[in-house]
């Protein structure tokens, strides 16, 4: 079989490419990485250093003509998720109309304008997407599915927590596999029972087995994208989109599924460097009280800038982190010396310390020192990993897609 050619959008430091190209049957022939909020394009620098700058674009994807992107078999991308991220509250997320959420439409535009459309899509986002925005839960995802359906794609999706399938980080992410009607795999899908495809026969179910629960929703996306934008789930109570599902010919069937995995499990300890690391990662004794306060439980009165008083409470977090379990999710603010509730802290023979960039890379399945480059700080390297995906998840999805083809 000839290699499947891949277009990698919103490439970051290359997680999709690493996962797919572990198989010799995928080849990235064009990539794009552009960060609108920074003058120096650090992620693109790392990408070019690791993969070369041939057929790599470091320009705003919104301004790139579709005609300049070569035809390809598979389009992949972890399109910007800041508007849905757990770093911001759901009520403040702007969904598809947000500053960076709008970049979804760059994917839609490319697919729409491509005369020879890619046969397959693999897209990644935070699971917040399934229930955004707060006043019309699931509306953004409904618009996306409708757009893809209009372009001739069937889509299966799943929310996958890497740790539940044996990996060393509790990282929950949404993955979507699109299958164009011109492909042979689409013909297989038409012959299959929809429920069996989602629960056992599909690309995602074959890679990451599940069992079903009694919870199932069926949704018709017969209205236009504009009408869906105005009226979808207007009562805003609960999103109809569950953690697994299938879109076929404008109809959606969605299931709440449970993980079915019996293999080995990795933990935080498995990625740790064995020797003493650089002094910058160790916590100074004088800073310990602040770390303990931020990690601890709180019930206290606070006052907003406008003078409004309110009661604030939160539970305690493990301090230090339990290295016998998978790590918590890496966030973009993982780097830097300042005390934080969300940064990882481990206990070692040399004292309490934060995780190193190499350890963060390992938690996402990247090669050691993938992001190490002159001019790239350790804080920036941690930021990259907070934005990245778990490479092994992509690898397994790619292998499953190949097996189906």
Describe it.
It is a single chain. The protein has 405 residues and is an alpha/beta fold. The protein has two domains: 4-262 and 391-404, Vaccinia Virus protein VP39 (Rossmann fold, 3-Layer(aba) Sandwich); 268-387, DNA Methylase, subunit A, domain 2 (DNA Methylase, Chain A, domain 2, Alpha-Beta Complex). The chain contains twelve helices and 14 strands. A ten-stranded mixed sheet has the order 3-2-1-4-5-7-6-9-10-8, with helices on both faces. The longest helix is centred in the last third of the chain and has 14 residues, at 391-404. The relative contact order is 0.14.
Concise structural overview:
This protein is 26% helix and 22% strand. It is of the alpha/beta class and 405 residues long.
- How does the helix and strand content classify structurally? alpha/beta
According to CATH, the fold-level topology of the largest domain is: Rossmann fold
Q: How many helix segments?
A: 12
- As a percent range, the share of strand residues is 15-25%
Strand order of the largest sheet: 3-2-1-4-5-7-6-9-10-8
CATH architecture of the largest domain: 3-Layer(aba) Sandwich
Number of domains: 2
This entry's quaternary arrangement is single chain
- Per CATH, the class of the largest domain reads Alpha Beta
The overall strand count is: 14
The low-pLDDT segments are: 82-87
Q: Can you identify the CATH superfamily of the largest domain? A: Vaccinia Virus protein VP39
CA-to-CA gap between the ends?
Answer: 10 Å
What Rg is obtained from the alpha carbons, in whole angstroms? Answer: 22 Å
What is the ordering of alpha helices and beta strands? Answer: EHEHEEHEHEEHHHEHEEHEEEEHHH
Shape: globular
- Sheet having the most strands: 10 strands, mixed
Classify the helix fraction into a percent range: 25-40%
On the 0 to 100 scale, the average pLDDT is 93
């Amino acid at each position: 079989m000839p290699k499947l050619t891949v277009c990698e959008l919103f490439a970051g430091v290359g997680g999709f490419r690493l996962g797919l190209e572990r198989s010799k049957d995928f080849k990235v022939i064009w990539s794009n990485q552009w960060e609108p909020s920074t003058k120096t394009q650090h992620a693109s620098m790392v990408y070019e250093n690791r993969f070369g700058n041939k057929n790599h674009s470091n320009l705003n994807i919104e301004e790139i003509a579709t005609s300049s992107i070569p035809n390809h078999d598979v389009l992949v991308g972890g399109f910007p998720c800041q508007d849905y991220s757990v770093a911001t509250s759901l009520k403040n997320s702007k969904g598809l109309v947000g500053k960076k959420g709008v970049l979804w439409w760059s994917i839609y535009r490319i697919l729409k304008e491509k005369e020879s459309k890619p046969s397959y899509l693999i897209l990644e986002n935070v699971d917040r997407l399934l229930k955004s925005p707060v006043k019309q839960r699931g509306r953004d995802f409904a618009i996306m599915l409708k757009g893809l359906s209009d372009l001739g794609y069937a889509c299966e999706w799943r929310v996958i927590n890497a740790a539940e399938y044996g990996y060393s980080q509790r990282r929950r992410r949404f993955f979507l596999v699109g299958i164009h009607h011109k492909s042979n795999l689409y013909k297989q899908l038409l012959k299959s029972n929809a429920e069996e495809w989602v629960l056992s026969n599909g690309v995602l179910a074959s890679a990451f087995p599940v069992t079903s629960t009694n919870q199932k929703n069926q949704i018709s996306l017969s209205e236009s994208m504009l009408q869906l934008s105005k009226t979808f789930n207007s009562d805003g109570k609960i999103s109809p989109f569950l953690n697994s599902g299938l879109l076929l010919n404008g109809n959606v069937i969605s299931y709440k599924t449970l993980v079915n995995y019996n293999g080995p499990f990795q933990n935080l300890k498995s990625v740790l460097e064995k020797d003493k690391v650089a002094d910058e990662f160790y916590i100074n004794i004088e800073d310990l009280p602040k770390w303990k306060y931020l990690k601890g439980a709180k019930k206290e009165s606070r006052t907003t800038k406008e003078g409004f008083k309110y009661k604030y409470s939160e539970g305690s977090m493990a301090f230090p982190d339990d290295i016998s379990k998978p790590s918590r999710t890496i966030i973009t603010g993982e780097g830097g010396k300042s005390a934080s509730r969300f940064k990882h802290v481990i206990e070692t023979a040399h004292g309490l310390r934060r995780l190193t960039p190499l350890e963060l890379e390992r938690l996402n399945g990247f090669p050691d020192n993938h992001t190490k480059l002159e001019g790239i700080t350790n804080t920036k390297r941690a930021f990259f990993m907070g934005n990245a995906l778990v490479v092994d998840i992509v690898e397994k999805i790619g292998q499953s897609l190949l097996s189906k083809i």
